[in-house]
Amino acid sequence: MPCIFKFSLFTTTKNDDKGSNLLKSSTTKSKEYAETLLLPKTKFPLRADAVNREHLFRDRCTKDLYAWQLKNNPKPLFILHDGPPYANGNLHIGHVLNKILKDIINRYKILKGHKVAFIPGWDCHGLPIELKALSELKNVDKSFLTPMQIRLTARKCALSTIEIQMSEFKSWAIIGDWDNPYKTLGWYKEYEVRQLKLFHEMAKKGYIYRQNKPVYWSPSSRTALAEAELEYYNDHKSRSVYVKFPLVKSSLNLPNLNDTDIYILIWTTTPWTLPANRAVAINSKVEYSIVSPVFDTEFVSCKDYYIVANNMIDALQKIIGSELNIKTTFEGHTLIGTSYEHPVTQVPYKIIDADHVTSDSGTVHIAPGHGIEDYETCKKLNISPFCPIDDFGKFTAEVGDPSFEGKDVLNDGTNAIINYLKENKLLVKEHEIVHKYPYDWRTKKPIILRATPQWFINVEAFKQKAFSSLADIKILPDNARNRLEIYTLSRNEWCISRQRSWGVPIPVLYDVETDAPLFAEPSIAHIIEIVNRFGSDAWWEIDEKELMAPEYRDNGIKYRRGMDTMDVWFDSDIFMSFFELLIRPDSNAVADLYLEGTDQHRGWFTSSLLTSIAVNETAPFSAVITHGFVLDEKGRKMSKSLGNVTDPKTIINGGKNKEKEPAYGVDVLRLWVASSDYTRDVSIGKTVMSQVGENLRKYRNTARFMLGNLNNFDHEQLVAYDDLKSIDKYMLHETYQFGKAVESNYDDFLFNKVVQALNNFTNVSLSAFYFDIVKDRLYADHALSISRRSVQTVLYHILNVYTRSLAPMVPHLAEEIYENYKNIDREQFDSIFKLGWYNMNKNWDNRAIQKEWNILKTLRNEVNQLLEVARKDKVIKSSLEANVELYVTSELYELLSNHATLTPNVLPPSFLNEPLQAANSIYIRNDNADDIGYIKNINNIENVKGTCKIVIRRAQMHKCPRCWNYAANEEESLCQRCEEILSTRSIY
Q1: Is 596 helix (H, G, I), strand (E, B) or coil?
Q2: How confident is the model at residue 820 (pLDDT cuts 50, 70, 90)?
């Protein structure tokens, strides 16, 4: 005997939106009953109007919240140390990515109950700011400015820029201690003192020393640079030359060649270093030959004899355009001690042995004043570095030939050297090469290696310990660990002195006659005390005698103050140890997290690590995250010349043409950051921002639906979990899974996956499924019915999880949503962030409900596909006009029967009302349908054994003018449910 259940259902179509279309009914009856429906009501606006409304919620979730959470949150302090940007210009889209990523993390930690200490900072010293400040001085000869004039100008520039940048950072809703940001120019006077004390401490440990040796020198900036301040360009062009150095015949230890002019051949890509030559290096274990060209070419003569490594003979023949006759072959050690004439000064120098010379090069020009390897090789032989080049990169009078003096070594100086070689018949070959070369990362101009007396940190002494400490550090993404380890191990020393006025002085006096530094503890301690009393300007302002410690004032030596300042990396690297004094006086100076761009692997991450290991013997961070750079939508770097620069202000406030450049507001900008896979380079542009804006609009509309249907709802009306309908329990299960996924991804800093989870939950679980199904209960059921309050209970729980999931990323929207539903709770706060993370009931995690609803959702999809076929054939105009019959067997019948229970005072009575959403539906066990209608057969739905035949036919009952369900017995009459609801005094 077949079992038959009949009931009315809605179906998802564009034509049956019960929110608005019920009010648009053309029948008189429908208009009459429309006012009896419980349609959504809310003050939450449909449109964000972000530019005019976001600021209304900003203070509560930034300034007010920061002080509150430090006082009230119960969990331990979380410190994300802010890597300070330079105070030398307007903020750009890279700052947006960096600062908002940090803010998302801090806000999540606050929601999780942590106290968060975030002190925004600025790098205020150094070359970038000094150059910007000087560029703003018009009609002034900068070469005559005193150090104090430069410092005052730079300080003014830095402080004014900080105010501008701070205002912009605040406008992005970045939470932090904006009243007390750290500034390396003297945030507190004690900051600079702390820096000098750390310098002193490292000096006492023997890590700091002064040496005259080659350093990276920027002629465009006129200062030494550290490795981290270089950029390498792959398309640099150099004029390389093959040069012959005449051997001193009397020193040559080879038989039968004493009457022949013999040259040792070298090759260099830096002809400007030839005046500084002090040796030629060979490898004593390599075989060499004396060769002679078979015929003359432009620069070589068959009368010439060259000493070259055997492995170079074939290459040399191609280079000079002539075959070579081999006169004799011998081992390299034969040449050691042989003299040659300097190509410019004709002063004799020696051929030396060097292990780094290979058989492929054979002979190497050694200029210890212009190369690190050359310097180290010559140091062992007591050969001093020589550098006839000034701060501007020009030859000095020491160069050896007056015609070279004053010429720029990288330009006309190189040209002059090559012309000299040609004129003196020392040039064998010249050709241009394109290769990798270091540039000053600020001026974007090439640097040189130049020997000058500089101050260094001996990184070799503790870099292995720094490397080992990284094993205990969480580093994201995974490939960043290798980069950070490589840069840590690759540094042997760190040049920390800079030839600029704007910075913290290196606290050392020098003997006027010998230039020897007074690097003694009492002297350094005395200078630190002067800075502690008067600030770092005192170094340039007070009399030099006052800078001397008493015990050195009458020792017969006249001292001068040094003019070098410290590397700005050293400025910002000591912040954590100073931060310890302010926030964590009883603990180690360790931040929970550093987060910066990938360029900081060789910059701030490494220098901060090294400084901390040297002073505190521990890493300064527990975790490190790096993000990529921001590119345009075509994957190109942004540049003004390409016209592809994205201005954060334009995204927030819109451009001149609002149609082409709409005003998205801050939350859309923040959501773009959260949506990006920041572990690699990310793109931004009009198409990207349009899609992000659309996502935020969907979040807003989703929240608005829930708020509208929670009108007049309060915590007293919450329905207990056990009393909820099955679909409501299932939706809480989906919410639980969503909430846990969001929480897990926030914990792992995978914000783009949080956004993906939000988008899927919004579009699939809520809009296309639950909201569409429960509209009938929300709009047409009695206001106080348990069925309607069940939906409202679920919507309330969803809204709580949903809003907190949004809050770290889009705090303005989250605050506005909370403002419109906080009245439901017993305890109310003035900010969503004060509620803490939402603790979901573990009962919601109902796997049995999930399994059943996976089956029902599959069945619903199959029904909808068949309904769509009937609609396209114009058998029905909408699914409301259709009957659905399900012919089922075995386990599927049992599952459906278990849920086909009556709900008191609610019609239609069946559980299948909501998931299938058709007009009239039945399900029948073990019965065969006739062949009239639209039929579809399915086997083993979701692994449930048995068959199901779906049959679609036109509905037989009439449309209820109030709820639009085809459940009325007569045309223009109410269905039983609506009759009972309207028979009461009030549905509200």
Answers
A1: strand
A2: very high
Nearest partner of 873 among 953, 764, 803, judged by Cα: 953
Specify the DSSP class assigned to residue 335.
G
Nearest to 832 by CA among 843, 847, 846, 817: 817
Highest mean pLDDT, choosing among 275-289, 315-329, 896-910: 275-289
Q: Is the pLDDT of residue 589 over 70?
A: no
Separation between Cα atoms, residue 580 and residue 575, nearest integer Å = 9
Q: How far apart are CA 25 and CA 564, in angstroms?
A: 83
Q: pTM, whole model, 2 decimals?
A: 0.87
| pLDDT value, residue 897 | 67
Per residue in 515-558, pLDDT (tens digit) is 999 999 999 999 999 999 999 999 999 999 999 999 999 898 99
Q: What is the mean pLDDT of residues 209-229?
A: 90
Does 24 score more than 50 pLDDT?
A: no
β-pairing verdict for 230-246 and 262-268: antiparallel
Identify the residue whose tokens are 């109007």: 49
Flag whether pLDDT at 297 surpasses 90.
no
Domains of the chain: 7-37+858-983 (no CATH), 52-189+573-654 (3.40.50.620), 234-439 (3.90.740.10), 681-845 (1.10.730.20)
Name the H helices within 303-445: 313-320, 372-379, 412-423
Q: Do you find a cis peptide bond into 147, omega within 30 degrees of 0?
A: no
Residue 905: how many other CB atoms lie within 10 Å: 13
Distance CA 596, CA 599 (A): 8
- Which pLDDT tens digit goes with each residue over 728-784? 999 999 999 999 999 999 999 999 999 999 999 999 999 999 998 899 899 999 998
Cα end-to-end distance, the chain, whole Å: 44
User: How far apart (Å, rounded) are the C-alpha atoms in residues 827 and 834?
Assistant: 11
What number of residues does the chain have?
Answer: 988
Whole-number Å distance between alpha carbons of 629 and 649: 19
> Nearest Cα to 477, choosing from 737, 107, 752, 683?
752
Place of tokens 């750079």: 629
Structural tokens at position 227: 């490795």
DSSP bridge pairs for 625: 476, 595
- pLDDT > 50? residue 22: no
Distance CA 308, CA 312 (A): 7
Q: Are 914 and 773 in contact (CB under 8 A)?
A: yes
| CA-to-CA dists, residue 874 to 12, 845, 877, 919, angstroms | 17, 43, 6, 16
Amino acid 913: pLDDT = 55
Between CA 288 and CA 924 the distance in angstroms is 99
619-639 average pLDDT score: 93
Report the pLDDT value the prediction gives residue 942, as an integer from 0 to 100: 73
SS (H, E, C) 139-208: CCCHHHCCHHHHHHHHHHHHHHHHHHHHHHHHHCCCCCCCCCCEECCCCCHHHHHHHHHHHHHHHHCCCE
Phi, psi of 843 (to 5 degrees): -65, -25
Quote the CA–CA distance of 501 and 563 in Å, as a whole number.
Answer: 7
| Burial 516-527, CB ≥16 within 10 A → b, else e | ebbbeeebbebb
Looking at every residue in the chain, the average pLDDT score rounds to 87
Residue written as token pair 């940048």: 165
Angle at which helices 811-819 and 786-806 cross, to 10°: 150
pLDDT tens, position by position, 415-447: 999 999 999 999 999 989 999 999 998 889 999
Q: Are strands 305-309 and 339-341 parallel, antiparallel or unpaired?
A: unpaired
Identify the H or E element spanning 595: strand 593-597
Q: Classify residue 64 by burial, with Cβ atoms within 10 Å: 0-12, 13-18, 19+.
A: middle
Q: What percent of the chain has pLDDT over 70?
A: 90
What span, in angstroms and rounded, lies between the C-alpha atoms of 152 and 671?
Answer: 40
d(CA 343, CA 365): 11
